[in-house]
Amino acid sequence: MSVLLKTIPYQLKDPSLLDNKCFIGSKWVESSTGKSFAVLDPEDDQTICHVPDLSRREIQEAIGVAHESFLEYRRKPARERRALLRKWADLIKANKEDLAAICTLELGKPFTESLGTVKYGTDYLDWFDGLIEQVGGETIPAARPDNRIITIRQPQGVVAAITPWNSPIAMIARKAGAAIAVGNTVVCKPAPETPLCAIALAKLAERAGYPPGVFNVVTVSPERTPEIGAELCENPKVRHLSFTGSTAVGRFLNGECAKRMKRTSMELGGNAPFIVFEDAKLGQAVDGLIASKFRSSGQTCVCANRILVHETIFQEFAERLAKRVPEALTSGSVWDPKTNYGPLYSGKGLAKVQQHWDDAVKHGAKVLLSDESPRGPNFVSPTILSLPSGMDNLASLAFSNEETFGPLAILVPFAKEEEAVRYANSTSTGLASYFYTSDFSRIWRVAEALETGMVGVSVGLVSAVEMPFGGIKQSGVGREGGAHCLEEYTELKAITIGI
Ligand SMILES: NC(=O)c1ccc[n+]([C@@H]2O[C@H](COP(=O)([O-])OP(=O)(O)OC[C@H]3O[C@@H](n4cnc5c(N)ncnc54)[C@H](O)[C@@H]3O)[C@@H](O)[C@H]2O)c1
Ligand SMILES: O=CCCC(=O)O
């Protein structure tokens, strides 16, 4: 029987993928307390279905199940773990349209973009597939003649994976997939806005043949989340907390884990600078900015946020951008394959965009592009503002201090390279940054000077599974993807043998 409480313009090929139960061990469960919470469709704010609001005791049980499962699963040879991961990835690929539809339904992401996040997720699983059998240790020449030293890499135990709403399939795949690949078991707590993608991934993990308790999905309402977060930090059976989300929450969870010497991976917020120097290829920079700023309607942690354009090309750049954005972005029903621009995930997202917009206008920003025709409760059209040059108080504006996480591009003129780099580095976060130039020396100089974990040079999209994704400063610790990503979920053990 369908769990849907509303009709949707998409017929799932496999309706059983859309479920509203948690997956713990080999069981599909509701909350024993009978509590649940609503999942909303951001396109119209109607209720899609209800999912369980698990209690702290139920989360403890899920951790216990994952721990029991770990004791067996950790012994599986790498070749067998690889075969399971391969099967899971292939099943996700075979069901990509249905998974994309579930993502579109609960996140309001246009269907075409949702297909992209499914692909991004399976790209990660494919990448881990290639790495699993490479994870090993080394032999170390010992100083003592009768000793031999080797190292091995072992799984850690139960990994708690807390994921955000903004790219639900990919964020779970790159975290849980990596942890499971090297022999850990996972308790995944998805964002309350997007639990259905996580549940669908669990269905496919079950079909792939993962032993019970290897991949568990628990859903929790926003009200109960802090208590559950505390349990995941405090429970000694959880050996690693892997979190993707806001800096404020990540900082808190990291502190709680530090008290217990618990391993963490923290993929947190950004506030990406995007600098266009006077010698940039303008067409390339305009297209790069559109890709970086308006992807997912501006709702990614690596979206451009503080856009600096050299004063000598500012006017031309702004005009070309304002002309190109409506050509490049098409809004409409999120189910229409032509639509590549959708609503924000909720009213919370909308309120933040409005706050940054009002703040910029209060400080003298001019509106270069906006369309306020109503198109659903959480929709905001791509908007471009420009600030005057020479502002003394630029660093105090709201968008200078926190990511807008929405489709609001605020352009700022600058005169000197040092000034642009200083402003770019003036935030407490350091995830991604971008700049456009044709000057070879400047490429090295600025790339080395920018305080971020990832730098895009004449490119507006850097995300790729083979690149170590992550930030410095308050954008987090650890890297996802890249050559060493599986090692994050292992412990290095040194074994000294006397002969
Ligand atoms: N660096 C990255 O890789 C990356 C990727 C995606 C999103 N993000 C960041 O995520 C943020 C957007 O996501 P969000 O608004 O859902 O962030 P959020 O921090 O509010 O929520 C993220 C997750 O944490 C959970 N959570 C919230 N409070 C918690 C608590 N006290 N204990 C345990 N869990 C808790 C939420 O339920 C959700 O599952 C942005 O700041 C964005 O930059 C970062
Ligand atoms: O929102 C953050 C993740 C998006 C990405 O990996 O490009």
From TrEMBL:
GO terms for molecular function: succinate-semialdehyde dehydrogenase (NAD+) activity. Coiled coil: none annotated. Its EC number is 1.2.1.16, 1.2.1.24. The keyword Plastid does not apply. The active site is at E267. Pathway: Amino-acid degradation; 4-aminobutanoate degradation. It catalyses: succinate semialdehyde + NADP(+) + H2O = succinate + NADPH + 2 H(+); succinate semialdehyde + NAD(+) + H2O = succinate + NADH + 2 H(+). Residues 28-495 form the Aldehyde dehydrogenase domain. PROSITE patterns: ALDEHYDE_DEHYDR_CYS (PS00070), ALDEHYDE_DEHYDR_GLU (PS00687). Transmembrane segments: none annotated. Keywords: Oxidoreductase. GO terms for biological process: gamma-aminobutyric acid catabolic process. It is an enzyme of class 1 (oxidoreductase). Gene3D superfamilies: Aldehyde Dehydrogenase, Chain A, domain 1, Aldehyde Dehydrogenase, Chain A, domain 2. Signal peptide: none annotated. PANTHER family: SUCCINATE-SEMIALDEHYDE DEHYDROGENASE, MITOCHONDRIAL. Belongs to the aldehyde dehydrogenase family. This is Succinate-semialdehyde dehydrogenase, mitochondrial. The lineage of its organism: Eukaryota, Fungi, Dikarya, Ascomycota, Pezizomycotina.
